[in-house]
Amino acid sequence: MTRPAARLRLPLAALLGLALAASLAPLQAQAPADFPSKVDAIFASWDSTATPGCAVGVSDAGRIVLERAYGMADLEHLVANRPDTIFEAGSVSKQFTAAAVLLLAQEGRLSLDDEARKYVPELPDYGTPLTIRNLLQHTSGLRDWGNIAGMAGWPRTTRVHTHAHVLDIVSRQRALNFEPGTDWSYSNTGYNLAAIIVSRVAGEPFSEFTRRRIFEPLGMTRTSWRDDYQRIVRDRAIAYSGRNGQFEQDMPFENVFGNGGLLTTVGDLLRWNTNFATATVGGPTLVALQQTPGTFRDGRGFDYAYGLFVREYRGQRDIGHSGSTAGYRAHLLRLPDLGVSVSVLCNVASGNASRYAYDVAGAYLGDRLKPVAEPKGVDLPEAVLQARAGLYRSLKTGEPLRVTYEKGALRIGRTPAVATSATTFRQSGVEITFDGESTTPSPRVRFANANGTHEEFERVAPATPDAAALAAYAGTYSSDEVEVTLTVAVENGDLVVRRRPDTKEALTPVYADAFESEIGFVRFRRDASGAVTGLSLGDGRAWDVRFARVGVR
Predict the structure, then answer these.
(1) Separation CA 54–CA 73 (nearest Å)
(2) What local confidence, expressed as pLDDT, does residue 27 receive?
(3) Are 489 and 352 in a shared domain?
(4) Burial 186-222 (b: 16+ CB within 10 A, else e)
(5) Which of 202, 432, 436, 496 gets the most CB atoms within 10 Å of its CB?
(6) How many helices (H) and strands (E) does the chain have?
């Protein structure tokens, strides 16, 4: 039985805002006379036949006003990048996957509040609802499958991963990073599952559905998906990374998509952005919903909508996304109240597409953008700053945070923080609050992140384990979730971890039972008697993956 068409739920304020935006559609501005030369200067380091490079496009009120390209698409065959060269867009792709899901929801073929297991029974039952909305807004708690694959020794692009691998890895995860809807952690897994859901619900390949329903109606004739990495794609730029002063190919040889994998041009991305004003695909309700940021279960908001970050840049609403896959880099931004979009695609890992995109927007708009606001700081005595310095650990993940005092400034990680009071600091839009009196070592520090999430850290003592303490960790540890065995041993007075076939990494002590390594962040676990019975491995988007010590009950 076919479900009746269902309306997408949208806050009244969003609908009114869309109507107002349509009635006050910005008129195209006159580009500064020196705009092309300013763009050339931004990309000057890639304007060479000896390097890869980038392409850039700018549109104003729906009309493309600039398209340029720099560097080479293929260094072996000396093929130059052109404005219509096809690049891979990395996570810029996510907004297209989200739009495909929203189209099906608009037609009543699924609901964003359906449990994902309804369409992907391979997902374990975690005893709590995990919805399609959670997948699209990174609030599912699902571990990123790429991080799990990396723990096993096969980071993304080192083998031909497919959606079958994604489903296999997901099916083995017995725990989530957090309860769905209560926190935020960027996860490609959610978008791979979303693409799978679209295919299963639509009854056709995801690539075909998006071609018919999105790309063709918008005239995106040079856009497709890398669903078969062996397929020949004419005019595609090869991706590169630098090593030892030389460039080498760095291609995404994998058949996973939806999270990334969009093959496109800067012009096609601008055509897509125009749809948020014209609503040719989806209509006004859908495009407004796609730009509506989400909320946690407790009502707190965050800055991610459906495949799009919704932020502020120099006094303007800024809606867009960056992307990174293998050696490709990308950024697509839209300043809707000014009607201006910028797309940047690069085929070199050191190409800072996000910085270039904002630099281009600044060159085009000039004083229509507010100056960059620097937080106003206060001078604090050295004793106050020294009291904040120290080693802390995250209450979420256990990962360490180093706060240091250097040359009159407090550094959070490697970046200086600006003091706004004796206990509060700001760094890159993050508000940082230390507990404790002005000159008393702070027991805790809290981060209010710019995206609406929070994280708390507690002070810990650095560890300096002796030989006997290190020997207690030696043993073999195994995980069914990762399908790998790790061997920990003491060699020449240092603790090391080995993984087949030939990986050997040092384990560097951080705090009690906690070590850093190239394999991930390691915390050894003990039973009530104090015996080491296992370890947990963390790696950014996969928290607390448990390994049991072999031979210990």
Answers:
(1) 9
(2) 62
(3) no
(4) ebbbbbbbbbbbbbebbeeebbebbbebbbeebebeb
(5) 432
(6) 13, 30
